[in-house]
Write a structure and sequence with these properties.
By secondary structure, this protein is α+β, with helices and mostly antiparallel strands. It has one domain: 4-Layer Sandwich (Chorismate synthase, AroC fold), CATH 3.60.150. Helix content is 33%, strand content 20%. The protein is built from eleven helices and 17 strands. The protein has helices at 29-40, 48-51, 110-117, 123-129, 134-150, 176-181, 189-204, 234-243, 256-259, 337-360, 365-381; strands at residues 2-6, 13-19, 56-60, 62-63, 66-67, 72-77, 154-162, 165-166, 211-218, 248-253, 271-274, 277-280, 288-289, 292-293, 298-304, 315-317, 324-326. Flavin mononucleotide (FMN) is lined by residues 46, 108-109, 129-131, 134, 245-247, 305, 307-309, 332-333, 336, 339-340, 343. One of its GO terms (cellular component) is cytosol. Homotetramer. Pathway: Metabolic intermediate biosynthesis; chorismate biosynthesis; chorismate from D-erythrose 4-phosphate and phosphoenolpyruvate: step 7/7.
Length: 382
């Protein structure tokens, strides 16, 4: 499975093409849209999310609620485009440009992207650098998650901490509804209240906030990924997609940073054979050993930096005059930490779906399902 996304933040639409999915996967718009809506949610987002009501159109590769085996095209309209038609027009002319951005924002793509592609209107950079693009990746991810769920794999994401305020409750699969119901994506009501206050304060101060997301998957068969080839190691591939999401700056598999402070005897997960299958009582490895799934829950933790656009701007330079100036103030989120968990679950879901199809792939879902079941039975009895 592979995919490509295209589209600008204020252009007419986002487009994604997915290729390599088996035929006969049940797939409907209602499998995709709830993920798009979840990605728009979360306390601390800006006014753009009031304008947009993201939904997907399925333009190819699906008939009568099932994949055909052909490439799948998904489209999400940008409602805000109607306010930007002239500015975003592909037609030549339009100089001097309206809404040109020349005061590069530290922490955003503006300055480096401008130098790289020789743009002096930094809007040419930010339109594609913007995390609006993640709507297309979430649409793709929702399809990957549907495939995984048909193969007995379930995922979750929650906010582990926001601006240093930690979810104290240990993660439980029983808390999925509470996480969905929380606009901070945490089941810890007390932590959510403190996070909300902190976001309100940051907004008043013209500041922004980051945090740490945790994504989990259970039901993964043993042996996805590789210990043989560096570029097929699943830990490496997961880290790559996580860091490819706008504003993600660190990835941890399991409790990697805490494990680094302990002796091996207190870290590695002892193995037992009980009631006809292999078992571990601990999961410090976070479900991955030597670049492969080991059958335990996959645990990925990701650090998101604070949003780059500050309403109380940092010093910068105007790229046309080279004079000192204040960084541009664009409409912006105060924090997007809750939304980021949704995006991360989707992009990791894509990697897992790809790894599943590499190991068990076939032309139809039935073939893939048979192969996954056979592998599960084998790894228990082994
Ligand atoms: C869901 C989401 C929403 C975001 N919203 C904003 C925003 O409103 N303003 C902003 O400056 N950055 C926002 N960002 C982050 C920038 O897109 C990102 O920092 C920028 O593209 C530079 O890339 P880098 O941080 O990965 O280095 C958002 C990121 C995510 C994941
Ligand atoms: C549009 C989305 O997020 C945007 C990501 C973003 C950025 O710089 O990354 C900047 C803001 O764009 P705008 O100025 O249009 O409000 C966010 O709203 C989205 O998540 O769908």
């Amino acid at each position: 499975m592979r995919y490509l996304t295209a589209g600008e933040s204020h252009g007419p639409q986002l487009t994604a093409i997915i290729e390599g999915l088996p035929a006969q996967l049940p797939l409907e718009k209602s499998d995709i849209d709830p993920w798009l809506r979840k990605r728009q949610g979360g306390y601390g987002r800006g006014r753009r999310m009031v304008i947009e009501t993201d939904e997907a159109e399925i333009l190819s590769g699906v008939r009568a609620g099932r994949t055909t085996g052909a490439p799948i095209t998904l489209v999400i309209q940008n409602r805000d485009h109607r306010n930007w038609t002239e500015i975003m027009s592909p037609e030549p002319g339009g100089e001097p440009r309206k809404k040109a951005l020349t005061d590069a924002r530290p922490g955003h793509a503006d300055l480096t992207g401008g130098i790289k592609y020789r743009h002096k209107d930094l809007r040419d950079v930010l339109e594609r650098a913007s995390a609006r693009e993640t709507a297309a990746r979430v649409a793709v991810g929702s399809v990957a998650l549907k495939l995984l769920s048909e193969l007995g794999v379930q995922g979750a994401n929650y906010v582990s901490s926001l601006a240093g305020i930690e979810t104290r409750q240990a993660f439980s699969w029983d808390d999925l509804d509470a996480i969905e119901d929380s606009e901070l994506r945490t089941p810890d009501v007390d932590a959510a209240a403190r996070m909300r206050e902190r976001i309100d304060q940051a907004k008043k101060d013209g500041d922004t906030l980051g945090g740490i997301l945790e994504v989990r998957f259970r039901g993964l068969p043993v042996g996805l990924g590789s210990y043989v080839h560096y570029d097929r190691k699943l830990d490496g591939r997961i880290a790559q997609v996580c860091l490819s999401v706008q504003a993600m700056k660190g990835v941890e598999i399991g409790r990697a940073f805490e494990n680094a402070t302990r002796p091996g005897s207190g870290v590695h997960d002892a193995v037992y054979y009980r009631e006809g299958s292999y078992a571990r009582d601990t999961n410090a490895a976070g479900g991955l050993e030597a670049g492969m799934t080991n059958g335990e829950e996959l645990i990925v933790r990701v650090a998101m930096k604070p949003i780059a656009t500050l309403m109380k701007p940092l010093p910068t330079v105007n790229v046309v005059t080279h004079e000192p100036s204040d960084a541009a103030r664009e409409r912006s989120d105060t924090t997007a930490v809750p939304a980021a968990g949704v995006i991360l679950q989707c992009v990791i879901g894509c990697v897992l779906a790809e790894a599943m199809l590499e190991k068990f792939g076939g032309d139809t879902m039935a073939e893939v399902q048979e192969r996954v079941s056979a592998a599960r039975a084998y790894s228990q009895a082994y």
